[in-house]
Amino acid sequence: MSIEDVVPKTFHALVESAERKFARVRDAPLHPYAGSGAHYGHFFHKVFKAYMRLWKYQQENRVRLVESGLQRWEIGEISSRIGQLYFSQYLRTSEARFLFEAYIFYEAIFNRKYFEGSSKDRGVRFKELRFYARYLMVSLILNHKEMVKLLVEKFTELVEDSKANFRGTNFKEWKLVVQEIVQFTRADTAILNIKPLRYCAMFDSHAASLPYVARFNAKRLLKFQDAVLTSYHRNEVKFAELTLDTFRMLQCLEWEPSGSFYQRHPIESRENGNLSDHSVASGLIDINLVADMVDPTLPSNPKKAVLYRPSATQLISVIATVCEGLPPDSVMLIYLSAPGDSVTDNTSQIKSLDGSSKFSKSNAPSCNHHEQNNFLCQNHVTMNGDSSQYFENYLWLGPSRNGGSNCLYPGDIIPFTRRPTFMIIDSDNSHAFKVLHGAERGEPTALFLSPQRPSFKDPSGTDMAQNGSQFTFFLTVPLRAFCQLVGFNLSNDDMDMYNDLENIVSTAFSEWEKILCTSTSLDLVWAQLLSDPFLRRLILRFIFCRAVLTLFRLRESGGRQYLPVCIPELPSIVSPKSKAVQSSISRLANHLEVADCFNFHE
Fold it and tell me: Residues with Cβ < 8 Å from 292, sequence gap 6 or more?
């Protein structure tokens, strides 16, 4: 067999081998807590190895492969698959370097137009559409807003072109994908976005209070390394399986990779010491560029499971896996954003022989996991042995038409309170989870519970389904949430105003940080979390959110349902009516000339 025959034959054998290996991990859960995590990790390594071998072979034999009929889209498909693998590894590990590796491959495909000419082949066109969707996802998470804007335009044009060139094919699903990304980017860029959502020392470390943080010590300090995030709301803004709320919280629990707002690097490679432009056909991609994008001195990001519309049993299974593997002196964060309901709203109450109130299971949502595990919770806390309070209210984790499999009850969480847990419940039924306090099985739970209803100066102008949850907004982008509350729209022409407002908020956070670090009345539940920068930032933002919403006067009656709750209570010196807190909110309101929206003298 001649060399001309060996090269293409070897190439196609490598392609087939890589695709077979990829098929084994195609449906692997994209989070670090899969039941067979080590099993999947082993196969991911094999798939990476197969594709990198394939990639290297096509680089070394490019001329012969092109002569034998290699198409540009085939190079693009290999690159796209490698990018997909890197992104999967990011989701499974939360390591930023994998996210950048994915971006590098996708950017090279885009710049070199590997899929150009796909209008002649429907199969290639579908590969190109999938590439754009994946590149958009990576660009979104990296906050490359200009690239996202460009990709949305190109993607929209491509879908329209597909409808015109392949008239016998239904592109309805791709039209829906376009609608999703347009709505998502509109919501994400509706308000000026200057600072990153990720933790950045430049913005989130406060020089005045840093010595107090460094000296802070408690009887026990917990490490934050694991989080479970999920959200579901009817008609919520999402792109693929990433909702706006989990998108914001995901970034809030990561380090800003470069220490400043993402630095862009051109895709270049060196040959013979000179910079070469490979924008045409070379297929060379400098995968070492990521070393220039990520600060090696940063700690690892906490691992995160971002779950899209899980059933209650799926969510519980993931929480159980996290709990089981949680290292000593560590805490897991559980973030749930979902609507809620009450069993008593849907069932008839009947009295048992001993006079205690019970509900009729025949009329309640059918929740098998509740019925199977109810015996585990029969003796939680209440002296009379009545456990029904833990199963009277629930969150909907998915469409109600799926029945009780989507019901998550406070009682479902109790078995996992044997380990340190920080729960953030963002729901109109969040206060139902107050019953967890005192019902823990070994470790007191830290709880942030959202208001049951949002507050706005102009409620008619704010659609929560299209803008995300207000409480999550406060915890992830507090200044933007404040502006949204009072109806003030910051624009690029307001940079001086924005910087002034950020300075006010930063000064306030620094002062509150100092107060918490020196307080003698800080509950140990919060004290043991305070040394972690991510959790400390969430605590400071909660103080801000609670104060703003407590002092806000332009809302309907029924005040408490508009306020968030933390359990156990934070020290009164950082309460909404304390001088240290109220004076900062007053400064912020006065600077925006919206002081008439607040009550500062009660």
Answer: 265
Q: Bridge partners of 230? A: 307, 336
H or E element in which residue 154 lies: helix 145-165
Q: Of 221, 281, 329, nearest to 65 (Cα)?
A: 281
Distance CA 312, CA 397 (A): 7
Structure tokens at 208: 């005045």
The secondary structure of 93-133 as a DSSP string is H--HHHHHHHHHHHHHHHHHTTTTTGGG-HHHHHHHHHHHH
Task: Kindly state the tokens that stand for 442.
Answer: 């070994």
For 269, the enclosing helix (H) or strand (E) is strand 269-271
Q: Quick one: tokens of 587?
A: 């400064």
Name beta bridge partners: 276: 269
d(CA 511, CA 347): 49
177-233, pLDDT tens digit by residue? 999 999 999 888 755 567 889 999 888 999 999 999 999 998 999 999 999 999 999
pLDDT at 1: 55
CA 209 to chain centre: 28
Q: Which two tokens stand for residue 598?
A: 């607040």
* Cis amide prior to 576 (ω within 30 degrees): no
Rama region for 113: left / alpha / beta (φ>0; ψ in -120 to 50; rest):
left
Where the chain has pLDDT below 70, the residues are: 1-4, 35-41, 190-193, 258-294, 344-387, 400-403, 460-465, 492, 556-558, 602
Indicate the pairing of strand 238-239 with strand 303-308: unpaired
